[in-house]
Design goal:
It comes from Paenibacillus medicaginis. This is GNAT family N-acetyltransferase. With 159 residues, this protein is an alpha+beta fold. It has one domain: Gcn5-related N-acetyltransferase (GNAT) (Aminopeptidase), CATH 3.40.630. The protein is built from 4 helices and 8 strands, in the order E-E-H-E-E-E-H-E-H-E-E-H. An 8-stranded mixed β-sheet has the order 1-2-3-4-5-6-8-7. Helix 2 packs across helix 4. The chain is globular and about 40 Å long.
Amino acid sequence: MADWWLEGPNGSLYKAFFLPVSSGDLSAMKWTRNIIWRNELDHPERNVFKLVDEKTEFINGAISLSDKGDHIFIHLIEAAPRNRYGVFPPRPYINVARLMMAFAGKVSFDYGYEGFLALTPKTKLLRYYIKKYNAFLLPGRNVGIDGTVTSRLIGLYYR
């Protein structure tokens, strides 16, 4: 069976898991003032997962997904503050966002959607998704991410 792997700044790999978020996790997930994970759990059609490293069981990030019939839609994705770029001291894991995108891509492949993802990025992150994930514009301020991109990410972090 394959495992998910977080990457440390020195290239070391650490086993990780995606687990469903429960109400008990929410107090540890108050990372950004305007992001309320409780709202994601209150939508029954959404699946909310936390990214946990095996060693400390610390929640390193979270993602909210839903099945749109031909793709997986990412409603919310957030790395814990200690795993964000520019954090001092150096962040313990450098691939949290990419690992969560790989997970969403794997869900898409598992559902038969060829790894296709869509999301609505914050305006200031649009260029980031285009550059980092080769995202392309879709109607309604949405962007799509092709299965070739998610397949590559899965290959890197799911072994």
